[in-house]
Amino acid sequence: MNKWILMALVATLAACSTPVKLDEASVEDKSAQGSGATMKALTPATTGAAASNAGSVASLDASATAKSAVGAERIVYFDFDSFAIRPEFQGIIESNARTLKANKAAKISIEGHTDERGGREYNLALGQKRAEAVRKALGLLGVSEAQMEAVSFGKEKPAVAGNSEAAMEKNRRAEISVR
Amino acid sequence: MNKLFLGCIAWLLACTAQAQFRVEVSGTGLTQFPIAIAAFKGNEGMTQRIAAIVQADLERSGQFRSVEGNTAGLDENTRPDLASLRKQGADALLTGSVSRVGDDRYEVRFRLWDTVRSQDLGGQSHSVGAAEMRRVAHKIADTVYEKLTGEKGVFATRIAYVTKSAAVYNLWVADADGEGAQSALRSTEPIISPSWAPNGNQLAYVSFESRKPVVYVHDVDSGKRRLVANFKGSNSAPSWSPDGKTLALTLSRDGGSQIYLMDAVQPGAEARRLAASSGIDTEPTFSPDGQTVYFVSDRGGSPQIYKVPVSGGTPERVTFGGSYNISPAVSPDGRSLAYISRVAGAFKLHVMDLASGQAQAITDTSADENPSFAPNSRMIIYATQQHGREALMTSTLDGRVKARLAGQSGDLREPDWGPMGK
Fold first, then answer.
1. Domains and CATH numbers, chain B
2. Claim to verify: residue A33 and residue A78 sit in the same structural domain
3. A2 pLDDT band (50/70/90 cuts)?
4. Has residue A146 been placed in a domain?
5. Looking at the structure, do residues A171 and A103 belong to the same domain, yes or no?
6. Does B280 sit within 8 Å of A118, measured CB to CB?
7. Does A34 lie in the same domain as A99?
8. In terms of domains, do A119 and A96 share one?
9. What is the mean pLDDT of chain A?
């Protein structure tokens, strides 16, 4: 009996001390890989922490590349129907440019995404515009073209499931990932 | 005990098959051919009911209405009381039988009657294995359809579509009614934009399995596939020319999504740019005579449908209503254009008569995607959302007769209708 209370306490403390951030590079969505049992052991405390941040359970992208981000931050978010980089993301562009110029062998993929409204192929093209906007911005800061590839996932890989405004905001993005 | 168990399962499957299929007819004054279809003698107790499959096919076409009549006990040899059936409202009668002629060998026979002129319109006999029962039912439906409308039926054609179930994507090849699906590709990354080659043997599609969109051409029978486009950036929206020799597709290799043509047969083919804009050009699709490519472009400030000669030239705008028109599909008879238009935030399937430019919305759903014409130009298959799930629907071109397709479980999307005769 005591063992269960202790485990629950540890789980609760662990969850409270590491709130889930949507751009947290180190968290993987294990349920997408089929090993849902691992996540279940941590509920309900983990879910509670996530809920207080996002209002719903966020399903994160299971990319293997999520583990090794370039720079501290790697996601640029966009307004609806837009591929303009907002001023608040200029810092992310600059820090990633610095890292890439310092390491000419490093290669990145810039992955553009959209929210779930609209056709798949047109959204693939919109996502491409977002990825290329980031690529151009990095190029203007001196990053070599050979180090970058701009690709799009369109609406196929949302970061957050659902069609609430909050979810869609987090899906309109370009992610910088190491290849 | 086993027999009872198997009997229950068969009954359950039969019920499920009926429950999945529902034709929605809207509007009045439809011209529909009334036909009585007798249960095929000897077909009782089998999983696949020929009469039910034929009825579902004919009703889904929108051109037929099934009539209940005194058809009990009839087979292809009985001389039916045609006058009585005429009185019951049937202009034609289909009768038939299924006989077991060997180990897993059946003979399926049918006869079609014109009740108005009291004529025997002929019949056929098919020798099949149990596994081919659905296919032969579709062929019978095609024969009936052609005899009574003068047009070729599409019931024995195939469709391709994609499902997403949890984190697994499958590209399916199925009968035109969504049944009998077999997986051509299974992936943990998305698959989009399947496109049948005109020969009905190959599918082009976009796969994200290498963490970027690339285009494959996949031989359906052998499972062998060829990577045809993996240029720098994104590769997508493959579309075949009617002669099967050229693929149009969208590449971002020169910066921005633009349309290119490449040889479909040559490995490592060069890609020639077809049109140019500083924005988005995508979703190319050939006209049935192979001379024109329709595509989506935002060169005018918002996504609209344009067309350009295959040899190049100045694109001409085709859609003018609204601020978002995408996913063009041209009917094989060249007369109609299906596309998706955003109207007050809803994404709605429209059909335009190309001669007049007149277009109408034909659905009352609000998340329509990806229309594709049947090879006889009489139906459209498309993806939409119903009751919170992604589903595939067929519709007549006027939107009056629609049906939701059976298929795999999970979310169904990205349909493409295969060609005639395969």
1. 29-149 (3.40.50.10070), 158-417 (2.120.10.30)
2. no
3. low
4. yes
5. yes
6. no
7. no
8. yes
9. 73
The number of domains in chain A is 2
Q: End-to-end CA distance of chain A: give it in Å, rounded.
A: 48
Q: What is the mean pLDDT of residues B288-306?
A: 97
**Co-location of A40 and A77 in the same domain:** no
Nearest C-alpha in A relative to B169? A156
Whether A59 and chain B come into contact, CB under 8 Å, resolves to no
List, in sequence order, every residue forming a beta bridge with A111; answer none if it has no partner.
A151, A175
- Please state, in angstroms and rounded to a whole number, the distance separating the CA atoms of residues B376 and B367: 26
**What are the structure tokens assigned to B111, written together?**
């006869």
pLDDT at site B26: 81
The tens digit of pLDDT for each residue in B44-74 reads 989 999 999 999 999 999 999 999 999 999 9
According to the model, what pLDDT value does residue A1 have? 53
Question: Within this chain, do residues A158 and A102 fall inside the same structural domain, yes or no?
Answer: yes
CA atoms within 13 A on the CB side of B347: 20
The answer to whether B392 and B404 have CB atoms below 8 angstroms apart is yes
Give the span between the Cα atoms of A16 and B78, in whole angstroms.
Answer: 79
**pTM for this structure?**
0.84
From the CB of residue B270, how many other CB atoms can be counted at a distance below 10 Å? 9
pLDDT single digits (tens) A84-100: 999 999 999 999 999 99
Sign of torsion over alpha carbons B19, B153, B148, B362: positive
Contact between A41 and A8 (Cβ < 8 Å)? no
pLDDT confidence of residue A6: 54
CB B389 within 8 A of CB B411: yes
CB contact under 8 A, B193 and A33: no
Is residue A162 in some structural domain?
Answer: yes
Q: Are B10 and B48 in contact, with CB atoms under 8 Å apart?
A: no
- Find the mean pLDDT for residues B101-105: 92
Listed in sequence order, the residues at least 6 apart from A16 whose beta carbon sits closer than 8 Å to its beta carbon are A45, A49
The reply to whether A41 and A73 lie within a common domain is no
In a shared domain, residues A98 and A13: no
Q: Is B252–A33 a contact, with Cβ atoms under 8 angstroms apart?
A: no
To the nearest whole Å, the CA of B209 is away from the closest chain A CA by 11
CATH of the domain at A95: 3.30.1330.60
How far is the C-alpha of B342 from the C-alpha of B236, rounded, in Å? 22
Chain B hits for A147, CB-CB cut-off 8 Å, are none
Report residue B1's pLDDT band, with 50, 70 and 90 as the boundaries: low
Does the interface predicted TM-score (ipTM) exceed 0.90? yes
Residue A102: inside a domain, yes or no? yes
pLDDT for A157-174, tens place per residue?
999 998 899 999 999 999
Q: What is the average pLDDT score of chain B?
A: 93
Q: Residue A59: inside a domain, yes or no? A: no
- Compute the nearest-CA separation of B410 from chain A (Å): 15
The answer to whether the peptide bond before residue B328 is cis (omega within 30 degrees of 0) is no
Q: Which residue of A has its CA nearest to B212?
A: A151
Domain hosting A95: range is 64-178
